[in-house]
Amino acid sequence: MALNVIMMGPPGAGKGTQAGRFARDRGLLKISTGDILREGINAQLPIALRAQELMDRGELVDDATMIAIVRERLMRPDAQPGFVLDGFPRTVGQAEALDRIVAERNNGPLIIVDVRVPEHELVRRLAGRLICAKCGANAEPPKAGEAAPTECAKCGGELVQRADDNEQVVLERLKVYDRATKPLVDFYRDRPTFRIVNGAQAQELVAHELETVIDDAALAGKKQAAPASVKARSPEKAASA
Ligand SMILES: [Zn+2]
Question: Domains plus CATH for the chain?
Fold first, then answer.
């Protein structure tokens, strides 16, 4: 059975790092929407080129286009052992479409992991974020008990605070995230395969908790799935799947 995972979490929660690490450990495909868009554009996929057109005009990529791009990627053979999706779905419409894609794959349930970090901790992480003034690389966050680095690990350039990372801006960004994500959390929260991970711990501990909850959710999903392989949330949705 495949492990089909989506990772949710606010900016600064470290979910991208954790998603990459988990995918690597388990031999799964890590998929971020930015990556598949770039990949699709390089491969001249018509659907990805359409998305690029929208972005070039300064418009948002619409749900239907985004869904088609994700679907194309998830139906390829190398995604069959499973995937870790980062940055999708962002809307309930996308989430419903993802349910249909997972049903179509017919290989394991969808596991939803929500990485939570208290707001004050996110502000500390994000507002304190340093970048290299010379090459733009992100500075490594200081390890517990160590002083923050003062120069770039890559080129030795001076580290400065990101211009858009002051506390007010960070708080506003987190509010926007919360508002946008609440309907998604409501959409998923009652499922036996929905799990919350405490992202306010050391990276190693987050990684460990993530593994534990995903394996546990996979088991819960397996029990639920038998024998009818697909259970949509309502009969109407099942009919349209
Ligand atoms: Zn640098």
Answer: 3-118+181-240 (3.40.50.300)
